[in-house]
């Protein structure tokens, strides 16, 4: 995706993968800095571990406790997290800010991905925001760790099934339904009676069983390709100052995965 963007934007750059020994992260960061890399993305299992190795971490990433993007500004390493904002950017393809603010939104899952999305959504102040997780304590600790202007709700998946008909937008942030366990679903979709939009952050498969069934029950759907592309575009913008063509990237990746 990034290499396509470099080409499209006429930028002399390369995006390459590096597998790093977990015991040598500090050395790797020093090496990348010495080689004067413009920036990089950070993925599992280093999103938290890299924080103390950076010179500065943006507020959002600090709050979430995870960094996915680093920019090297004349030797000063600055960390941020574009995952949550990337999700919100993809949500804007389906809903305006005003519509989001009038919506009752349910996030399923309370892991790392959920935390970033919760924070980004809470900033938009939807009418209601709830987090449902298999283990309630984790949902509770998520909503307590992130300060919001409006009160958010933490519930168990079981409890949430009783309330499912009260949500307009339901977002799956868990790994339930990801390849190869493609028939698994995070909740009982038949109870999502008034849901107009079901979103999943999974992009393999492109259409999870959750999205397929939600569609059968009348909801519009949003798969994880948009979030993937937009989190990347936000990072690309930090490194290059340009806004890459995200629509083209969504079509290209959808074709590749389809
Ligand atoms: P990530 O950083 O990708 O979000 P994570 O931190 O491991 O990954 O979080 C995974 C999320 O998926 C959690 O909300 C987890 O629920 P628990 O906190 O109860 O473990 C959820 N999850 C994973 N497998 C699940 C399953 N089989 N049923 C329900 N929830 C599941």
From TrEMBL:
Domain Shikimate dehydrogenase substrate binding N-terminal: 1-70
Chain's gene name: aroE
Gene Ontology CC annotations of this record: cytosol
Cited Pfam families: SDH_C, Shikimate_DH, Shikimate_dh_N
Oligomeric form and interacting partners: Homodimer.
Function: Involved in the biosynthesis of the chorismate, which leads to the biosynthesis of aromatic amino acids. Catalyzes the reversible NADPH linked reduction of 3-dehydroshikimate (DHSA) to yield shikimate (SA).
Domain SDH C-terminal: 224-247
Name of the protein: Shikimate dehydrogenase (NADP(+))
GO biological process: amino acid biosynthetic process; aromatic amino acid family biosynthetic process; chorismate biosynthetic process; shikimate metabolic process
Database matches in SUPFAM superfamilies: Aminoacid dehydrogenase-like, N-terminal domain (SSF53223), NAD(P)-binding Rossmann-fold domains (SSF51735)
């Amino acid at each position: 995706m990034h290499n396509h963007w470099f080409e499209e934007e006429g930028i002399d750059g390369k995006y390459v993968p590096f597998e790093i020994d977990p015991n040598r992260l500090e050395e790797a960061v020093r090496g990348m800095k010495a080689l004067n890399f413009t920036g990089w993305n950070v993925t599992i299992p280093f999103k938290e571990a890299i924080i103390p190795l950076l010179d500065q971490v943006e507020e959002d990433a600090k709050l979430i406790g995870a960094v996915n993007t680093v920019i090297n500004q004349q030797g000063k390493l600055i960390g941020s997290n574009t995952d949550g904002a990337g999700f919100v950017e993809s949500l804007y393809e389906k809903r305006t800010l005003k519509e989001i603010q009038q919506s009752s939104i349910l996030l399923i899952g309370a892991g790392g991905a959920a935390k970033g999305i919760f924070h980004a959504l809470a900033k938009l102040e939807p009418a209601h925001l709830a987090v449902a997780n298999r283990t309630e304590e984790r949902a509770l600790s998520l909503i307590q760790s992130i300060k919001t202007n409006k009160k958010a709700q933490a519930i168990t998946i079981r409890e949430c099934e009783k309330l499912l008909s009260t949500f307009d937008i339901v977002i799956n942030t868990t790994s339930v339904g990801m390849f190869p366990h493609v028939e698994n679903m995070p909740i009982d979709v038949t109870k999502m009676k008034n849901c107009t939009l079901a979103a999943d952050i999974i992009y393999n498969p492109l259409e999870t069983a959750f999205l397929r069934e939600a569609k059968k029950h009348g909801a519009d759907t949003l798969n994880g390709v948009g979030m993937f592309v937009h989190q990347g575009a936000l990072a690309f913008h930090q490194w290059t100052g340009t806004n890459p063509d995200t629509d083209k990237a969504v079509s290209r990746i959808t074709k590749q995965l389809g």
